[in-house]
Design a protein that fits this description.
Blueprint: H1 23-27, E1 46-47, E2 62-67, H2 71-86, E3 90-91, E4 100-105, H3 110-125, E5 129-134, H4 135-139, E6 150-152, H5 160-168, E7 171-172, E8 174-175, E9 180-181, E10 184-185, E11 202-206, E12 208-209, H6 220-224, E13 228-229, H7 232-244, E14 249-253, H8 268-276, E15 284-286, H9 292-295, H10 299-306, E16 314-316, H11 324-330, H12 336-349, E17 354-361, H13 368-381, E18 385-390, H14 407-421, E19 434-442, E20 449-452, E21 458-461, E22 471-479, E23 484-488, H15 516-519, H16 530-539
Helix pairs in contact: 7-8, 13-14
GO molecular function, one term: 4 iron, 4 sulfur cluster binding
Function: Catalyzes the methylthiolation of N6-threonylcarbamoyladenosine (t(6)A), leading to the formation of 2-methylthio-N6-threonylcarbamoyladenosine (ms(2)t(6)A) at position 37 in tRNAs that read codons beginning with adenine.
Membrane topology: Single-pass membrane protein
Length: 543
């Protein structure tokens, strides 16, 4: 059976599907053909409703956007919400109020896909229109539970308005193609599209899509494909625009940040040096995940960048396992000694650096000896940030066909590693320190503001409005497993890094001085406005 990604994919413009007659069949069927008027079918692949519904004008409805997964997916969700709002749709945080649910999925682990599938079912039970996006439908668009649903591919998010328009009218459409220029695959949709940031103080920039690896457990590769990087000048311009809209923190993200530029003749350090020129005093840049093979080539340069006062001393380097035999089965293209070399080098030259890593428990073929090597690695480095994942076989991946570790063994190893991780406290020795922190978020319980120090360690501070978006000084007086608490220093300078007033929550990036209330009454960008839609329908005799 062919893999989902190898099968024929319907696109929104496709007038012929794999189910249509072949030219040979049509030739010998002409005698039975009866001429009839041709119906207009532009942008329509499939009619979902059995009866035509009352006339609706797309762009006047409420849309709920739900995103699962990584920061790259979060950025895609922000872009889709922004374009819909700019086109007249109202973005709501209440799913019950919404006319349509836009569900942006993650395919990394089974639980994330389960949540996604359950949300589709829930929406259908409530008679909501549904559009799906993200890595799940891109990688496996013919999955049964996606039948008759409209799909936005991961490189087609700039056409979300078209897809939602048709879904609102009851049509099922699918956009799954790749973006290319002169035959070369691009990083994705334009970076200057309208956007609604979940946090108006933080801009998430995807520097590339896809990767150069072929990890045997990874389903994301099926969706995001091979490496495709954005040009440096486009990324710098996006950062510049974001700072002009009042943000004070940038997150760089991708499936593998360290591989950036290899497809376009540049590299990550070259990009970072250009970006730091644009960062205002007090604002900060956070690097995304990088796999060991690519960071090894730039260790000296990365040290200098991580020492920069406007770059967090933080790096996410997934190890996945400390066993070389397991890494080989995973096709990770490095050995544990490579990972140790990266960490030792960075810790020696960037004192205090925070290293985050990932570990998979119970990968096929993992023995007790293999797992013990991973436990020993954690004992040695005592990672302050550790993402522990029980292995889940993803459909269509080589690892799913390997001999599996028994479920109870996987659970036990996950439990043992989690216990080890929670046995040490990484921040106790910092009680009494005075730190400068950048305040950007609300805490999960809404009792504090969340700030981060130079090493991207989480510091909770009093929830005073004058601190939000500011760089302040605090004295650390308490420490937990994942955080510290800081008491603001009296009479200390409160510094504002933003060079402009931040956008309001829910306001669309790229559309200066326009609020969501204005968007329903006037055209504000290249997206078709509600009034434009009405005129167009009237001219075609549809009203």
């Amino acid at each position: 059976m062919p893999a989902a990604c190898d099968s024929l994919l319907d696109d929104i413009e496709d007038m012929v599907t794999s189910h249509d007659p072949t030219p040979h069949e049509r030739q010998f069927a002409r005698r039975s053909i009866v001429p009839r008027p041709r119906k207009h079918q532009r942008l329509i692949l499939n009619r979902v409703d059995s009866d035509f519904p009352p006339l609706v004008i797309p762009g006047t409805q409420k849309v709920w956007v739900r995103t699962w997964g990584c920061s790259h997916n979060s950025s895609d969700g922000e872009y889709m919400a922004g374009q819909l709002a700019a086109s007249g749709y109202k973005i709501t945080e209440n799913p019950s109020d919404a006319d349509l649910w836009l569900l942006n999925s993650c395919t990394v682990k089974n639980p994330a896909e389960d949540h996604f599938r359950n949300s589709i079912k829930k929406a259908q039970e409530q008679n909501k229109k549904v559009v799906v996006a993200g890595c799940v439908p891109q990688a496996q668009p013919r999955t049964d539970y996606l039948k008759d649903l409209s799909i936005i591919g991961v490189q087609q998010i700039d056409r979300v308005v078209e897809v939602v328009d048709e879904a609102i009218k009851g049509h099922s459409v699918r956009l799954l193609g790749q973006k290319k220029e002169k035959g070369k695959r691009l990083g994705g949709a334009r970076l200057d599209l309208p956007k609604i940031r979940k946090n108006p103080l933080i801009e998430i920039i995807s520097v590339n899509t896809g990767c150069l690896n072929a990890c045997t457990y990874c389903k994301t590769k099926h969706a995001r494909g091979d490496l495709a990087s954005y040009p440096i000048e486009e990324l710098v311009e996006r950062a510049r625009q974001s700072f002009q809209e009042g943000i004070c923190e940038i997150w760089l993200t991708s499936e593998d940040t360290g591989a950036y530029g290899r497809d376009i003749g540049t590299d990550l350090p070259s990009l970072l040096w250009e970006l730091v020129k644009e960062i205002p005093e007090g604002a900060m840049l956070r690097l995304g995940m990088t796999n060991p093979p690519y960071i090894l080539e730039h260790l000296e340069e990365m040290v200098r960048i991580l020492q920069h006062p406007r770059v967090y001393g933080f790096l996410h380097v997934p190890v996945q396992s400390a066993s070389d035999s397991v890494l080989m089965d995973m096709k990770r293209e490095y050995c544990c000694a490579d990972f140790r070399r990266v960490i030792d080098f960075l810790q020696e030259r960037v004192p205090g650096i925070t290293i985050a890593t990932d570990i998979i428990c119970g990968f096929p073929g993992e023995t007790e000896e293999d797992f013990e090597q991973t436990m020993e690695l954690v004992r040695q480095y005592r990672f302050p940030s550790l993402f522990i994942n029980q292995f889940y076989p993803r459909p269509g991946t080589p690892a799913a066909k390997m001999e599996q570790v028994p479920a109870h063994v996987k659970k036990q190893r996950t439990k043992e590693l989690s216990a080890l991780f929670h046995s040490y406290k990484p921040y106790d020795h910092k009680i009494g320190e005075r730190q400068r922190v950048l305040v950007t978020e609300d805490s999960f319980d809404s009792q504090y503001y969340v700030a981060h120090n130079k090493f991207y360690e989480q510091v909770l501070v009093p929830k005073k409005p004058e601190f939000k978006g500011k760089m302040i000084e605090v004295d650390i007086y308490e420490a937990g497993k994942h955080y510290m608490k800081g008491r603001p220093v009296e009479d200390a300078r409160v510094f504002t890094p933003s060079i402009a007033q931040p956008l309001q929550k829910g306001q669309v990036s790229g559309l200066p001085q326009v609020s969501l209330l204005d968007l329903t009454s006037q055209p504000v960008c290249d997206c078709p406005s509600v009034e434009h839609r009405r005129k167009s329908m009237k001219s075609r005799g549809l009203t």
